[in-house]
Structures are given as C-alpha cells and as structure tokens.
Amino acid sequence: MKRFLKYTVIAMVALATASCEWSGSGDSRDPDNLGLTLWDIAKDDLMRVNEIFDFIAHYNHLLTIEDEQERTNYQHTHFYNMIITVDNNVHMITRNTAYDTKYYTIIEMNADNWRVRRSGGNSYDLTIRAEGEDRYTVEFNELYINESKGTGRLDIALAYDDGEPNVRYSGELVMVDPEESRAKPLTVTTRITSPIEYSSPTHFIDGVLTIEAYDALYDNTDKAKVTILNNGYSDQIIIECLGSIIGYKF
To answer: Which of 8-22, 87-101, 214-228 has the lowest mean pLDDT?
Structure first.
C-alpha cells in the first residue's frame, strides 16, 4: 500500500492524548501504523461480510430465473461445485472442499424473513428482513471470522445489473477477538456512517466508517476514521487517527 498524502491537523492534536494507544505495537504513537492497523482489522471483517452478502444476493437472483438453461448457466457460474436441495421452504447449499469436507448453508425462507446459517469455519447465523423495495436489514446473530466472534446489524440497499448484485450497506459490526486474552479480549466496533459499496468482496469503492478498538487487557481505546474514495482508477483511502490525516492508494 502506497501513501499518497499526509498532513497534520493542528486542531486535532488534543486527540492524541485521549486515544490511539495500540497496545500490541512498540511504536504505538505513530498514526501511520496505528490507523493502518485498525483499518486492516476492520477490512478483514468487512471483506467477509461482502462475501456473505455476495453469496446470498446471487442465490436470491438464481431463484428468479425462469428459463431453465439460463438458470443452469447462472448456477454453474456462481455455485460451481455446490449441490442445492430444496425441502419446502428450506434450501440447503452443500459445498465440497478440496480437503474432502463439506460446508452447509441452510436458508430457511419464512413469511417475513430469511434465516441463513452456515456451518464450518467462518460460520454465521443471520436473519434478513425486507424493509421496502430493494431494502433490507440483516441481523448477524452470530458471525465467526478466523479467531473472532461477533454480532451486527446492517441496513442494505440491493440492486441488480444483468444478474450481478450491487450491494450498499451501513450499520454496525462488533467483533470480539480473544487471541491475546480470553478473559479480557479485544473488541472492535466498526460503524459504517456512509454506505459501503464494493465491486468484488475484496475491492471497496465507496464508504465512510469509524473503527473503535477496546483492549480490555490494557484498558485502552483506539479510534480511527476511514474514508474510501471512488475515483475510478485505483483504490484510495484516507485514515484519520492521532491528529493526522493520511491517504493511501493500493
């Protein structure tokens, strides 16, 4: 990741005394390292959320395709090496892995919500409710991402372009990471204040979020604000932390 601008806002210097102590780093007062570390933590969580939304949105569209050949082609493209079975309102998608294991995604389609559960590593349990035309709320009852476990509530706007979903979402995600201390873990709260949009699960093109990491082991709270810029040429972000505003492109 390449830095493309840096300047310090004098009016924000007081912030340095109140936040942004990263307990796991020897140079914790460096806004470059601290802000980027907080973004890297939140980014991994959000990329997993993007993957989940992408998967469900593609399956939602698959159900609307009436032409059998078109539906087969779409399923082969987006659900390759998966087996789909339907029993009344319960849809089960079985994924075979290269390690001769299986993951199951179960979608229970109720009158007023979808309950979606996935087994295995990085599992989740969520509930989707329609809030109007092309708008939904998603409650993450449980969400596992590597060593972290969390919950969240996100508001989604969903549209399709030739079968490909366009997802924009805002809201809050709270992930608890007990890696350093199970009794006093790290809690990372990501609040999306301007909707995130992505062109692929790993490629963000828009959004504004604040990241707050509370380390119970050291009783420290670190904060950063991240703005994702959509300039059409490269990924760019601006991170505000420790009285500095630092831009990156990657």
So the answer is: 8-22
